[in-house]
Known about the structure:
The structure holds two protein chains of two kinds.
Chain A: H1 2-8, H2 19-33, E1 46-47, E2 51-52, E3 58-62, E4 68-70, E5 73-75, H3 78-90, E6 102-107, H4 113-125, E7 129-133, E8 135-136
Parallel strand pairs in A: 1-8, 3-6, 6-7
Antiparallel strand pairs in A: 3-4, 4-5
Chain B: H1 2-11, H2 19-33, E1 40-44, H3 50-53, E2 62-65, E3 68-71, E4 74-76, H4 78-87, E5 99-104, H5 110-122, E6 126-130
Parallel strand pairs in B: 2-5, 5-6
Antiparallel strand pairs in B: 2-3, 3-4
Helix pairs in contact in B: 4-5
Amino acid sequence: MRRSRRRRRPKITIPTTSMGDIAFLLIIFFIICSTKKVGVTVTPPRAPGLGELPKPNIYVGVDANEVIHVDTREVFGPGQVEAEVSRRLARLDPNAPSEKRIVIFECDQSVKKEVFEPILEAIAKGGGIIGAVGTDSGQPGR
Amino acid sequence: MARRRRKRRLAGFPDLTSFSDIAFLLIIYFILATSLHQVAGLRTDMPAGQKARQAKAEQKAITLHVDGILWGRQEVSVRQLREELVRLELPARDPNDRVVQFEAKGGVSWQQYYDVLAAIEHAGGTPGIVTDAGGSR
């Protein structure tokens, strides 16, 4: 009786070959989910006939609350923007193409002149070419 | 002899079980690494110092108010400003003569400012920004 019961038991084997791969997939998933977003959340201005901007070498962002960021770091005032831009551009090869000097400037459409204009000045004084981010509205109007 | 050889080959055969997983990993990597979204915008090389002042004295300047745009003394819409600037044929000029004086008054939003910048860039000009301090950059 005992022998026959033992024979009936099926051998259960769990394949564990791909467990490592599944673990890798999960790691990748969580790394992606926890990635910090580069840039600020803004509503960019709309204008017709905008061109494409290159991938940012330096990023300056101003959100609707007038908080200024250089890349992911918060800065206080145009003076710090100028210092940061000139410091970063000084590292560039003097013979580097002008594309490398482009500073991506992203600003919320509601921000007032008193805030953004000194930042534009600071970028220009720091030696940067301003690449102002906007949304293409298609045909010219108004 | 023949049996022994067969057995050795089977023992050295690579395990292909995880190949599909590796393929998936590669697909995920490339999907993430490839950015299809291109940022749109204006490229503006704003002149600093003397260069901005070289704008021709006879050329009209743009003054941007909260409630409108002045092209010289004439009030214009963004569309009219674009047409006026295109009429100047700026791309045919010497690069130093392409500067368009542009002054924004207090309270102007980035959207209004951007409309004017886009109009200048569209016409092939370079904005020479006149600041509150009285000098142009």
